[in-house]
Structures are given as C-alpha cells and as structure tokens.
Amino acid sequence: MNYETGISMDHGHASIEGDPLDIVQAEEKRSRRKWLIGIIAFLVLGGAIIAWYLMQGSGGTVAAADKSDQAAAITVISPGRATIEGEIVATGTLAARREVPVGVVGEGGRVISVPVEAGQFVRQGQLLVAIDRSVQNQQAASQSAQIDVARSDARLAQANLDRALKLVERGFISQADIDRLTATRDAANARVKVAQAQLGELRARNARLNVYAPTSGLVLSRNVEPGQVVSAGSQPLFTIAKGGEMELMAGLGETDLAQVSAGVAAEVTPVGTDKVFAGQVWQISPIIDEQNRQGTARISLPYAEGLRPGGFASAVIKSGTVVAPQLPESALQSDDEGSYVYIVDKDNKVERRGIELGNVTANGVTIRSGLTGTEKVVLRAGGFLNPGETIKPVMAKE
Questions:
Q1: Nearest to 82 by CA among 373, 392, 382, 377
Q2: What would the pLDDT profile of 319-331 be if each residue is shown by its tens digit?
Q3: 352-376 b/e with 16+ CB inside 10 Å = b?
Q4: 0.70 exceeded by the pTM?
Q5: CA–CA gap between residue 391 and residue 389 (Å, rounded)
Q6: For a Cys-Cys bond, which of 22, 70, 129, 275 suits 211, CB 3.0-4.6 Å?
Q7: With helix as H, strand as E and coil as C, how does 97-121 read?
C-alpha cells in the first residue's frame, strides 16, 4: 500500500499531510528534544551556582558560622579575686592521745573483783582490780607480833642496864659489864626497828597487790576477770586514755603538710555521724613516709562520747588565708591533660586555659594558678565549645 506525504500551507502555518503514524513519531521526537534541552539548561544553571559559591568561599570571606552576627550567645563570668580562708581536707584514724597500759605492779595472785568496765571514766587512784591477800595478811600479822617481841627484849635490856649502873658505884659491877649491857640494849632497840621495817615492807607489798588507776581517764580495754590469776610481767590488764583525750592521725601530702603548723584549728567528723568536733593540730610528723609520700598531722580532741579510738574520720584543717579566684564547678573542665577552663579573648574567640585547682568551698572551687581573675570565663557551655570558636559573650548576673 502506497501513501503520499505532502506539506500544505494554510494561513501561513505548515501542516503535515500524509500517514498518521509518521505524524505521531514526529511529535514524539520534538517532545524528547524539548526535555533534553531543559535538562541541559538545568545542569548548566546548577553548575553555575556551585561555581559561584566556590568562588565566594575562595575569596577569604568569614564563614557564616563564624560571623559575629550569627555566633551563639554564651554566658561568661569574671571571677575576680577574693580572700579565702584556706582549708585542707584530710582523713585518718582516731586514737588515744596518751594511751596508758595498766598492769600488775606487785606479786599478783587470784583476782577477786574487777569493779570497772571498759568505757567508764576513772579517777586517779581508783581501784581497778582487787587481788586475794589472805596469805599476805597473815604474814603481816606475824611480823607485827615480831615487833612486840623485839620491843620486850629492848625493854628488858634497858632495865638490866639501869640496875647495873646503880651497882657500878658500889663496885659490884665492872665497867666491862656495863659496856656489855649497853651493847645488848642497843641491839634490842635495833631489832625493833628491823621488825618495824619488815612490817612496813609487807604492808607495802600487800598494797601493791591491788591494781589502781595511775591517772584519770577513759578505760579503753579490760583484759581481766574475777578468778583469773595474774602476776607481774603479764599483759596489761587495762588500757586507759589519759584524761579521755583523743586525737586524729590525719595523713597529709607533702604540699599540704608544709602549709600546716602546730596550733591551727581543725574540725573532725567521724564516719557514721554528722557531729563535728573542734580540735587543733598539736604535732606535725617530722618525717615523710617513703611509700605513700605522706606525713601525719596529729589533731588533739577533748573527751567526747562520739569519739572512739580506731574509728575513721575526716578533718578540715585551717591553713590560713589566700587571695585567689573562685569558680563554680560548672565552669571547670578536665581531660587527660588536666583541669582547664575556656576563656574569651578580645576578639570573642574561645581559648583553652590550663588551671590548678585548690580547695572546694561553699562559694566554689579555688583556682591556685592559671587565672588572674580578670578573664572572661565560660560559665556552663564549655563542653560544647572548641578552641578558636567565635561566640557572643553574655556576662552573667551577680
């Protein structure tokens, strides 16, 4: 089948005459050509926009994130400098300041009574242990009788001498007899004194059988019971804290120990209680332990029921006053390199500054070194900033 195709002009417009299939194919070609031209134009326009942005970036202009008008508003604080009472926090063990062991002074024997208990406060000279002395009492009685015998002999010797002196004038007694009787009288008087001394010794020994408190204080331990046989040289029967005074053996590092002196005040808080006991440092250790590099500050404490030797306690030692900046904990940052803060320079750039921390007080943390107090320190947002970042500092209200 043959078809003829022709082009006719009608009112200035071209029209396709001929086979309808050829007409449809021609229209599809024109449509694809329009889509292809549109895509090419879009790609060219996009490339031009990207090239413009790259040219703007290479021109050295400030990035949008770093422009002052787009910087984040960050609260800062100027800490200044304040006079701060220095405090050193330490821990240690409670102990008796003067611990007095009490043992058997005399011969010892069987214990018949122990009238005191651990934890009681005793007076100097108070009876602690009574020991059976039935045998010793009989020995003292026997010696007392020996004194009476010696006195009788002395009286008889004196009477013989007196009679002889009356007869010597008549010539019945020689001078030699007088000398002999005088010696007998003197020996009898000496035997009286010996017997008296022996009785005094026995009584003193008997008095030492009982155990008495050598000083007033708190009984820390009791190691004797009725019926027990004790002797000289045995283990101490009691341990007494002289005057009831306690102390805290606080361990301090070399730096802190150098800042403490005898006589400074301290506050001690035993573990397990919120009671605070006032004391003062009375002795500083003259040596430093080679293993832990610490010395000991001994803090004396008066007698109180809440203080128990062997317990653990913490102490706050006053170490004078210092003038230094203070910052809240929210401004402090730390990493492997140590503690630091972020400060803001004159161009509102964030800068890292290393610091050394001091004491922690109710008003904040003391900064030993690293700040003068005039800097602008980032208060809270330090964890979200990077060195060199531009911010808009906003001074915190007092």
A1: 373
A2: 766 788 888 888 8
A3: beebebbbeeeebbbbeebbebebb
A4: no
A5: 6
A6: 129
A7: CCEEEECCCCCEEEEEECCCCCCCE
